[in-house]
């Protein structure tokens, strides 16, 4: 079984602010940093750090060579990454002193993913292989429908939500990863008992994983419904916490863990990620996750 993460790569411009800015306000920042990120890149790195052998496909611009270097360092295969003339995608991220973030995206090279590129990449994979997608590249509906037609097992993180995310697209998910923002948009609620069945109806036969930040995470699938409390940590930057969770969860289930074990390990990895600044660089290695002594939040 091979694993392909087909998604975005962004240069993240991170502004640390006292509070997230409000409409009409002008705010001095506390510090500025640049990190490599993008949901596709982050999830591929998380899966690799969790022990999965993974290929990353997508598009970078002439300014995106750094992504190949980092992928080589963490063991992500980049043979399906294309360079185009459009600049690499970027994100302007505000991080508050409580660790909350909000993100503005410029798609850049991520919007140069073409149907022809998708066909060329998918030709290298076969039925039963894993395809991990998010929603920061062009032609996502084509990618998902072609992957499904070829029998790939698809993990969908419909983030950020936009009109490309249709019930038809979500129905192809074997694993559907949704956070509280997407749950609210898809189901009108974040109450697990209300939205897990609704989300499961969107991908019949598949599994739904709902992440709720400090309120923990839940799984509903053929094996049952499970709840995992969050770990207690001091959050400094929640960027890429969801990506860390997704990469770790998939690496765990594909290596034979039960959904309950996968929820536990993915939650612990995401908890460690929020204690560090940045996107991909905040993602812990498998050994760090195994060795970390963290206590669970009270229910
Ligand atoms: O999920 C976090 C990521 O979202 C950031 O790295 C940013 O690039 C945006 O894609």
Low-confidence stretches: none
What bound compounds does this protein have?
Answer: alpha-D-ribofuranose
Mean pLDDT: 96
Strand order of the largest sheet: 5-4-1-8-9-10-11-12-13
Can you tell me the CATH architecture?
A: 3-Layer(aba) Sandwich
Q: End-to-end distance, in Å?
A: 38 Å
Percent range for β-strand residues: 15-25%
Overall SS class: alpha/beta
And the CATH topology? UDP-N-acetylmuramoyl-L-alanine:D-glutamate ligase
Q: What integer value in Å does the Rg equal?
A: 18 Å
Q: Give the total of domains.
A: 1
Order of helices and strands: EEEHEHEEEHEHEHEHHEEEHHH
Given this structure, which CATH class is correct? Alpha Beta
In DSSP terms (H or I, runs of 4 or more residues), the helix count works out at 10
Helix content: 25-40%
The CATH superfamily turns out to be Ribokinase
What characteristic shape results from the CA principal axes?
Answer: globular
